[in-house]
Amino acid sequence: MSPTARPRSRIQLRNRELILDAALEVFSQHGFRGATLDQIAEGAGLSKPNLLYYFPSKEEVHKALLTGLLDTWLDPLRAMDPKGDPLHEIMAYARRKLDLARDYPRESRLFANEILQGAPRMRDAIEGDLRRLVAEKAQVLTRWMDEGRIARVDPVHLIFSIWALTQHYADFDVQVRAVLGPGHDPFAEAGRFIETLFIRLLNPVR
Predict the structure, then answer these.
(1) Does the predicted model carry a pTM greater than 0.85?
(2) What is the pLDDT of residues 9-31, one digit of tens each?
(3) Which of 16, 27, 122, 123 is deepest in the core (most CB within 10 A)?
(4) Are residues 133 and 36 in the same domain?
């Protein structure tokens, strides 16, 4: 019987967690093609046959990671409140995205690697849940623009720009820190810059 066909024991839950954490490290460093089950098993401290008891293939491990990651990635945008103050809601969204980049750099790199490969394992989710959520929030942004509460810009590209500016600090962390040099807090400085940039861009009175 498959371990997913009955309630999992504490040991099984712990082993799945060990496998997924090790897989996240391996996939974020080597990408899907470069990662191996042997590397994941070694990182988890388990034998390869033990790993295969929980996940029958590398594809299944990767799929489990991406499924959990997509919800993590969508939650900050879902939290944008249509009834809130526009500038506050947009800035709060940008801060949540920057916090994700700071706290989940491996997940950000995993997502970036998947996209760079053409999203073969995430295309349905991107063209489904993600596209619908962006369209929904773009309508909210457009309404705020129509009401004169924020300056008029392309709402979808506004969301893209927030993604680009925040995820850069995870995906290119080594470059950012090398250029800034010692004594800098990239995420604190980025937060101040991004807030200044978007407030000036979106302030309806210029």
Answers:
(1) no
(2) 888 889 999 999 999 999 888 88
(3) 27
(4) no
